Amino acid sequence: MGHDRPAFSLTDAQRIDWLRLIRSQNVGPRTFRTLLKHCGSAKAAIERLPEFARRGGASGTPRICSHADAEREVKAAAAIGVRLVATGEADYPLRLQMIEDAPPLLAVRGQHAVLAMPMIAIVGARNASAAGVKFAERIARELGEAGFGIASGLARGVDGAAHRASLETGTVAVLAGGHAHIYPPEHVGLAEAIQAAGALVSEMPIGWEPRARDFPRRNRLISGLSLGVVVIEAARRSGSLITARMALEQGREVFAVPGSPLDPRCDGSNGLLKQGATLVTEVADIISVVEPILGRPMDLAIEEPEAPSPHDSGPGSDERQRIVNLLGPTPVAIDDLVRLSGSTPAVVRTILLELELAGRLERHGGGLVSLA
């Protein structure tokens, strides 16, 4: 797993700029990357946010995170032992960097070395059966002994069991909220144990209290960190199935443990098996699939910044209108917008960026977009 990574490190001033940009209104990880590419730096992007939003049809100016707020967050993070690691820096997990919506800054607490291990995610029911918990512990322990780190979401049930069983060999808990808000509260002690031997990671502001919509967001990081995701007991509509779907979108392996057809907790995991997930009854089932992947070099998309043009007036209003007319509530592929509009990919990307910063665009997995 030796990867020669180009040495890249943000200065303190650049880290503040990156934080200000990702914490500004309507800027998500994909928009952040597009802005950086388009403007050349986070500092330049912040200066142009109001202009982009105006061109996208925003009525007011988007809320931009202030320098003071960003500095406060960096200080609050440092006070509890959290480091903000940027994509491209040596401590940023390589596999996570490969997903299209990787967080530009990852808040990490604990042992950074764990993030360099090959990871397997283990997820499942919060109200897991005793058998489900026992199997999660066994798989996590045996994967740990085989040299794999375990990624999970610190939830009750399967997640907690997987973390506990891999404390000594390496485990990573992905938080739905900020580091100052461990959820569920009864896992504060487990989080402290993980910090001592593994790592806790989050993309949210330090004091962020998790809401329902933050959990699916977190799930893409669990699968993004990993070579594959093992699902143990998942009901038909569950967060674990969202993690499995995201794993597929990210090109990760999906494994499922078969369960009783009489147990509703197994409906989703059994459904994954019908759809072609790899069946798992022992740890060898997982290792035999991921071992060949470990030998392959990882492709990291290095994006060159576009030449920033401070005086560019942006796409024409007729071109912008043509693309807005092609958009609707149904998600469409960006490639289709390019083809149908007759505009260049750069122009389409710029218009989508403007619409997003104006709060008029929603991005979906697989490069799809729709009007908000």
Order of helices and strands: HHHHEHEEHEHEHEHEHEHEHHEHHEE
> What is the CATH top level name of the largest domain?
Alpha Beta
Q: Report the sheet-strand fraction.
A: 5-15%
Average of per-residue pLDDT values: 92
Name the shape in a single word. globular
Q: Give the CATH architecture of the largest domain.
A: 3-Layer(aba) Sandwich
* Class by alpha and beta content: alpha/beta
Tell me the distance between the termini.
42 Å
For the sheet with most strands, the description reads:
9 strands, mixed
Number of helices: 15
> Care to count the β-strands?
12
The rounded Rg comes to 21 Å
Which strand order does the major sheet show?
1-2-6-5-4-3-7-8-9
Features:
Arc Repressor Mutant, subunit A; 372 residues; Rossmann fold; 43% helix; 3 domains; nine-stranded mixed β-sheet; alpha/beta; globular; 15 helices
Question: Can you put this structure into words, describing what you see?
Answer:
- This protein has helices at 12-22, 29-39, 42-55, 67-79, 94-97, 130-145, 158-165, 188-197, 214-224, 239-249, 267-274, 283-294, 317-326, 334-341, 345-357, and strands at residues 82-86, 105-110, 119-124, 149-152, 171-174, 199-202, 228-232, 253-257, 278-279, 332-333, 361-364, 368-371.
- It has 3 domains: 12-108, no CATH class; 111-294, 3-Layer(aba) Sandwich (Rossmann fold); 317-371, Arc Repressor Mutant, subunit A, CATH 1.10.10.10.
- It is α/β, with parallel strands linked by helices.
- It contains 15 helices and 12 strands.
- It is globular, with a radius of gyration of 21 Å.
- The strands form 2 sheets. A 9-stranded mixed sheet has the order 1-2-6-5-4-3-7-8-9, with helices on both faces.
